[in-house]
Structure formats: C-alpha cells, structure tokens
Inverse folding.
C-alpha cells in the first residue's frame, strides 16, 4: 500500500508479523506510486482473504484482474482466520476484505471495528449459513432431527475455523436453541479439514453433520442437503460485502465506485467459484478468472455505472 497513515500502519504491521500473515505476491511493489486519489498510476491495493473461504478467494482474484487493468498493483494477503483479517482492515494494513459477511455472520467484528471500517457495497444478497448432512440420510431433514441421535454422529458436528462467524453462531445459537449442547461437540478445525471428513463419510455412506454455507461450491460438488432450521437459529439470509479500511473511498473513489456497482447473481457467482476452485484449481486462480471474464464480457462494463 502507498497510504501514509503511519500510526495505523505501524500497529497493523506488528499484528501481521505476530499472526504470521502470508503474502501472495500478485504484483510488484511500486514505491514510486502516486498517493493521490487520481486512480491507478502504480498505487498498490491490498486484498485480504482466508483462502479456504472460496467466496473471498474467487472475488480477490476477480478484483485483482479488474484493478490491474485499471493500472493498480494488487496484492493478496492470505490470513488464517476472521479475527486477524478484520483487525488488519481496521488498522489499515489491509485495504479491503472483498467478501465479508457483516450483516449476521461477522456482525460481532463489525461491532468491534465498525468505526475503522467502511462498507463499499453488497455484491451478492442471498448468502446463508447452514447445517448439512449427506442427501442419503432420508430420515434427517431438520436440525431438530439431530436431537436424541448423537450416537449416529459420534456426538460430533464437524465445523470449520474457530474464529469463523459460522462457528460462533453454531455454538452460541444453534446448539443451545435445539438442545444439542449436552450430546454434541462442535469440532473446530478448518474448512479443508471439514470437507475432507465430509468427503470420506460420503464415500463410506456414513452419517455426518457439518457446518456449511451458501454460496459455496461444496454444495454442488458433494451430495448434501441443508437441514431445515425452523427456529431460525442460523439467522436470516445476508449479503456479501466489500469491507474496506475507513477512508478508502476518499483515497480511491474510482475503486470504491466500481465495488459499489458490482453485482453477481446465483448463476454468475456459481460459475465463477466453480471455475476458480474446481475447473482450474489452486495456483491457476488468475487463469480461471480470465476465463470467467471471457465468458462474461459485459460484467466489467457494469462496474462503471
């Protein structure tokens, strides 16, 4: 980044070092860039993601393509969990989290850091949290059906990262609301570990319940079904937003405008994530995004109003 907010940046750099942020070098630094809000000209914009959360992964590489065409240098920082990611954005060490869940899932982080964050817009408006089981489990269709059946699942709900909003909601809302606290343990691990267990269970036709969300490519890759949530413990559908460090739109109004105009429907989002994660895979994200843009040539035009 070329921003000169030295006080905030120093604190964030310390946090980043302590948390072991890994930088994916997606563009060379340009120390001679212009710090003005004129746009492009070598300015560096840093996007923060949790790489196993593929909504953010897909959007980061999509924005890297778009913004580098506008003359920016884009760096993508991979971070292990939501808490340090929000800290990095709030402190100014990261410019933008390009696929945040601030309405419900990450509401606690917005409450904590909201004064230091700026919401640039909502690019997708039907995201939701779920608990899911394999489709072959015909007699388990609701979270209520988990009650009294812990033995079938070895007393485990297989979850994701400890700092994820989905983890918090599952522990603090879903499990107590449905009386699952005494019989089940939420296994906190990682998205990849959860998917590995899900795949192994499906291959063996075993019972398993996992925490999932939509939109997410795993819902179509794995033969799963969402459990009904009659008590609404998982919350209402929410939007996926681009959340920036406070003051970003003043410094980069052109980028803020493009992100505010960005919209993806279900088909567009599904095809983007599937192309990034499945068709091309790790290490070929930039190629995947370019292929998606080739198939959706009018999408970039919508960003400029």
């Amino acid at each position: 980044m070329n921003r000169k907010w030295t006080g905030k940046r120093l604190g964030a750099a310390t946090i980043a070092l302590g948390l072991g942020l890994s930088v994916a070098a997606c563009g060379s630094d340009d120390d001679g860039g212009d710090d003005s809000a004129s746009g492009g000209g070598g300015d560096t914009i840093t996007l923060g993601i949790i790489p196993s959360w593929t909504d953010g992964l897909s959007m980061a590489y999509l924005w890297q393509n778009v913004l580098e065409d506008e003359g920016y240098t884009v760096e993508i920082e991979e971070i292990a969990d939501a808490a340090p990611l929000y800290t990095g954005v709030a402190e100014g060490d990261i410019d933008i989290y390009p696929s945040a869940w601030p309405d419900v899932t990450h509401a606690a982080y917005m409450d904590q850091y909201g004064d230091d964050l700026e919401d640039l817009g909502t690019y997708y408006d039907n995201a939701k949290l779920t608990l899911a089981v394999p489709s072959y489990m015909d007699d388990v269709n609701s979270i209520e059906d988990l009650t009294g059946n812990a033995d079938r699942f070895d007393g485990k709900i297989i979850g994701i990262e400890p700092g994820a909003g989905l983890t918090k909601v599952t522990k603090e809302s879903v499990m107590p609301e449905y009386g699952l606290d005494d019989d089940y343990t939420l296994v906190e691990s990682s998205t990849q570990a959860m998917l590995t267990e899900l795949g192994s269970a499906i291959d063996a036709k075993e019972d398993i319940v996992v925490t999932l969300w939509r939109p997410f490519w795993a819902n179509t890759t794995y033969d799963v079904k969402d459990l009904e949530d009659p008590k609404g413990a998982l919350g209402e559908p929410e939007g996926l937003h681009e959340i920036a460090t406070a003051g970003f739109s003043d410094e980069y109004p052109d980028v803020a405008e493009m992100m505010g105009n960005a919209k993806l429907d279900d088909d567009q989002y599904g095809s983007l994530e599937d192309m990034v994660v499945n068709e091309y895979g790790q290490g070929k994200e930039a190629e995947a995004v370019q292929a998606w843009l080739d198939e959706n040539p009018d999408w970039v035009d919508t960003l400029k109003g």
